[in-house]
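Internal tracking record. Fields below are filled automatically when a chain is submitted to the structure queue. Please do not edit lines marked as system-generated. If the sequence contains nonstandard residues, flag them in the REMARKS field before resubmitting.
Queue: standard
Priority: normal
Entity type: single polypeptide chain
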Amino acid sequence: MASLVQHVAGLACPPLSGASRRLGASVRPSALVCGTYVLSKDEKERERMRTLFDEASERCRTAPMEGITFSPEDLESAVETTDIDTDIGSLIKGTVFMTTSNGAFIDIQSKATAFLPIDEACLLDIDHIEEAGIRPGLVEQFMIIDENPNDETLILSLQSIQQDLAWERCRQLQAEDVVITGKVIGGNKGGVVALVEGLKAFVPFSQVSSKTTAEELLDKELPLKFVEVDEEQGRLVLSNRKAMADSQAQLGIGSVVLGTVESLKPYGAFIDIGGINGLLHVSQISHDRVADISTVLQPGDTLKVMILSHDRERGRVSLSTKKLEPTPGDMIRNPKLVFEKADEMAQIFRQRIAQAEAMARADMLRFQPESGLSLSSEGILGPLSSDAPQDEGESAGE
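SYSTEM-GENERATED OUTPUT FOLLOWS
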């Protein structure tokens, strides 16, 4: 036993590593082999990383520019010679690198600082910059609109670019005479304000098809057509009447449509026929005289009416129930019967119109035999047929 103790005591053990000395008593050897401490794999990796860190720290302290050929003077010179147009109104590409409650800071690859205020982030009114899609990492083209004289920070805008594009889009839509949709966001005694292509547009009440208030239209979407697009004056005027007239262009004279009584006037009733406000004049309610419209119609009543005329340009439609009466006075005595027989009576009305037109064309041909045209039994003009009867003069000549 004594000889074993003497043998072990005679072994030379290497000193502990620096990491082990620093860790102190908390570090315990993973294994003991013949009196020598052996580090585990993870401990060896940590020791290697610490050694590298210590070496890098020493280089930064004693020789920070070792191996670097680009000096601070070279960097300053490169920034000074970078060709970036920072004039007001110029467009510049930048990357969002930080957002705040007031806006976003933009990296424009220049020594100048650039900032995008929240009220210049988009055409809409927003509470947070993220609502406009502005987040760190976003690369976008901005317009320089100002410079802060205190710290020479460039003030950028996305709203100005979007505004130019929106006005151009409105001019194009007006030229194409198309129907668009606008959301009502406000109003006053003269009309409502609608959001169109991100711009605020005015729709006068005279150009709204239904008799209603601004409060009733708030947050509703209206079909609209452009009336005036003037970017210089900031005037954007649209019409709901023209849009509705365009959407109802398929309604021809003699068509029967379903309508709702909106309001009564001494001279007639305004009928909503699917977004278009048509006038049912008092003289077109019935063949019998109507002294008081309220005795026949009430707001909210549903009825069928015939289209008498359709002014698409002015957005006006004239209606009639008189033409739909099976017998004169039915609209007063039995409006339910008029509703049930409306389509049948409209068909009869259209046939009478076609017959009247055919007779008019026949009269025209009677006085213009040299035209070489004849009238068929359906009232259609066509070339004179070979078997058509000839006049007495031609027969006598033969």
